[in-house]
Design a protein that fits this description.
It is a single chain. With 247 residues, the protein is an all-beta fold. The chain has 2 domains: 119 residues, Hexapeptide repeat proteins (UDP N-Acetylglucosamine Acyltransferase, domain 1); 84 residues, Hexapeptide repeat proteins (UDP N-Acetylglucosamine Acyltransferase, domain 1, 3 Solenoid). The chain is 2% helix and 29% strand. The protein has 1 helix and 32 strands. The strands form 4 sheets. It has a 12-stranded mixed β-sheet, with no helix packed on it. Strand 31 and strand 32 form a beta hairpin. The radius of gyration is 19 Å and the shape is globular.
């Protein structure tokens, strides 16, 4: 099966479209874009120069979480924008109206919800789920097996972790656990969140904090290690009814 390109799509110079690729109506691909086998782009998707979609993961002998398995094709929803040099792996699914900025990486079995912004240089490792209308800002790192629910904010330079043994011990694979950020949770610039931590709904970690324990609902933590020091002000909390009515 050859690539299927809608007649209204625009494909730049030196692009590579592999077997079974589907390019929907109104899509615009820049120059030197590589789209691997089976990848599906919805309608009106913009893909900038040198992006790579549907890449198969590489597994080194010492890889901790990369698996050798058959993965479904990469799928990109309608009205998405994929930046220069961005890499979306096979098995990744991006819903409608998502922005994946320049040089961001979305690994296998990653799902990104509608309307979310994935900033420049962000890395989202395998088996992560990101909800709708989130903002994950420049150079943030989301460790494998993490969950970010709807309307969350992850500031620039945030680092999460999933390996409490820091890569040593024969049974360390049994203890991997990503972080969980519940609806409306926020991690400010440069925060570090350790494996297995849950940020409850509307919880917030202040800039530069090291979060070693769960953050209670609508609480602000700060420090090294982070401790609760105040509640999130009422005027900064999501308005439930208004938020739920948004598309």
């Amino acid at each position: 099966m050859k690539a299927l390109v809608d007649p209204t799509a625009v494909v730049g110079e030196y692009c590579v479209l592999s077997e079974g690729v589907v390019i929907g109506p109104g899509c615009v691909l820049g120059h030197h874009v590589v789209v691997h086998a089976g990848t599906v782009l919805g309608a009106r998707v913009r893909v900038d120069d040198f992006a790579c979609l549907g890449k198969t993961p590489m597994k080194a002998a010492a890889s901790a979480v990369t698996k050798e398995e058959a993965l479904p094709p990469c799928r990109v929803g309608d009205d998405c924008m994929i930046g220069t040099g961005a890499v979306l792996y096979r098995g990744c699914r991006v819903e409608e109206a998502v922005l994946v900025a320049d040089y961001a990486t979305l690994r296998e079995r990653v799902v990104v919800g509608r309307g979310t912004i994935v900033g420049r240089g962000v890395a989202i490792e395998c088996d992560c789920t990101v909800g709708r209308h989130c903002k994950i800002e420049t150079n943030a790192y989301l460790a494998a097996y993490s969950t970010v629910e709807d309307r969350c904010f992850i500031a620039p330079g945030v680092v999460t972790a999933n390996d409490p043994a820091a890569g040593r011990g024969k049974d360390r694979h049994l203890h991997y656990k990503g972080v969980t950020v519940r609806r409306g949770g926020r991690l400010a610039a440069g925060a570090v969140v350790l494996p297995g931590v849950t940020v409850a709904a509307e919880g917030m970690a202040a800039a530069g904090s090291v979060v070693t324990h769960d953050i209670p609902p609508a609480a602000v933590v700060a420090g090294v290690p982070a401790k609760v020091f105040k509640a999130v002000p009422a005027e900064q909390r999501l308005e439930e009814e208004a938020e739920e009515k948004k598309p």
